Amino acid sequence: MTDDTETQADRGRADRVAVTGTPGTGKTTATALLDGEYDVIHLNDRIKSDDDLWSERDDDRDTLVADLDAVRADLGDWAGVLDSHLAHRFDVDRVVVLRCHPETIESRLRERGESPETAAENGESEALDVILSEAVAEHGAENVYEVDATDRDPEAVADAIRAAVEGEREPSAGTVDFIDYI
Q1: Which of 69, 105, 142, 151 is most deeply packed, by most CB within 10 A?
Q2: 14 vs 80: CA distance, rounded Å
Q3: CA-based nearest residue to 85, from 22, 150, 31
Q4: Ordered per-residue pLDDT tens for the chain, 182 residues
């Protein structure tokens, strides 16, 4: 075996794993089930609770604009599972991208009270693989694990994340396709 033909058994446990995806894919719900087993950092909650971690409010989307440099400094030398639609923007060993059918995302976001425009924008972003593309560009396909959470319960999604953290599954960028939504 050569150095660049790393097998599943060779991957081992990762120290820093991003769990990312379009809002509404189930990141926070699934990673909450891993809390205690791993140190889970729910980054969006952290940003919302600290005025030094965001630079402005986007009134049109009713969201905060994170100051990624300030967040990096705040995280320091962390280890564990980082949960956020921004998690792939940080230095990590592996990235788990949760995917979900755009219609399901739109429905979940509307149920949360998001505007129809925000829900539609996120559904379209999911169909266009925006976060997956960013994750692959930043970390390489060999470090990205896609999980289609559309028809999985939160425990099954947590199991898939755990398998990626522990190195018990192969990278899988590019395996989920929702382009038919467009």
Answers
A1: 105
A2: 8
A3: 22
A4: 344 444 444 579 999 999 999 999 999 999 999 999 999 999 999 998 888 888 888 777 777 888 899 999 999 999 999 999 999 999 999 999 999 999 999 999 999 999 999 999 999 999 999 999 999 999 999 999 999 999 999 999 999 999 999 999 999 999 999 988 87
